[in-house]
Write a structure and sequence with these properties.
The chain is mostly helical. The chain has helices spanning 6-12, 16-26, 38-44, 51-65, 75-84, 89-102, 125-144, 147-171, 178-199, 210-215, 231-241, 272-280, 286-302, 308-319, 321-329, 333-341, 343-346, 350-369, and strands spanning 114-116, 122-124. The protein folds into 3 domains: 1-108, no CATH class; 113-243, no CATH class; 249-352, no CATH class. The protein has a two-stranded antiparallel sheet with strand order 1-2. Helix 4 (51-65) runs parallel beside helix 6 (89-102).
Length: 370
Amino acid sequence: MYPIKLESTWSKYISPAGLRELVWNTAPYLKTRAADTPFLKTLHAEPEDSVYGYFEFCLAAHHTTVATYVPTDVDSKIRGLLWRDTSDQEQLRRMAAKALEMHSWTLDGFSLRTVDCGRHGIVSGHDGEWLSVAAGALGRFLGRGDTESAERVHEAIHQELLREIAAFEYLLPIQGRELDVMRLAMSVTHNLGDLNQGISFWSGPVRNSASARQFERLAQENASGYGGAFRGPCALYKELLASEGHRHYPLRAIKCLRQSPGLMLPLGPFFDDYGALLSTTPLLDGGGRAEILEALVRGCRKVPNQHGYYRAIAGFQEGSQRAFAQAAAALPASAGKLLKEMRQKVSMPRRSFESTYVKRVERLRNAVNS
């Protein structure tokens, strides 16, 4: 069977050239970086003329940008649409193999939203992106009756979920890692949501399959899957972190933040160090700092109930009083007024702010041990 030609595929979706330009726009430093990883080589080359080739290209674009300020919008393609664009078994299996390979791609230079979980490895939002793509593969194989391929992908998803459970159980009892427990809770909960997004493309009898029953809606408060092991991290997220899981639209227009991977956002709401970096890094000039400070100030009002931007502003001021004063003086009058109104919240000491999260983790720790 001949592969589907990409003239039809590309006519429905953004072209590889257009997608590549979106990558360079949000991560311009990648344009001149050596193609030192398989996925960067993919981005710098022309894709194979097949659905598989376009899928591989989209995976590379997604992996390199999903933790940047302006991720490329290919989620629906790699989670569902492209899996439907071919019935060629060889292509589907190649796509699944590439999707499984994606899970081992490096995060160095591509994300600061990671948590080191010791022997259980690094857990990040990229794991959720991978889960959603793997779910796309699983649903397609289940629908086609390709039992061998379905079992292989099902087991890979299952092992990743077990790893994230083990990572949480490993970190929870460690004194001094309470904020990392919170960061991990955010990643794990988002990852379960991404898995659901992949499953949302399933249809027909597959929606009622054993895989759907095992993997779907694990983040719900009453979820019993995996012995209820995900209830702990999901409860932490729901109680204290849900408002921090937004898409950071206020920062998307700030192009000076895109010039280095070191300026990417870490996991919120613990942005004090991020704010301090903004006020001290030689990568930013006075105009850039003022632009960022304005975005953070306006973001505090645009995103209700979040705390991360307040902490970034606090860190900005703590990092360099001089840089903060210069940036504040350059703000438009309306933004300057908002900044003055939020001084009390910004002035909260870092330790006082973080203590709420530390105490919540301690309560969970004590409940587990009782």
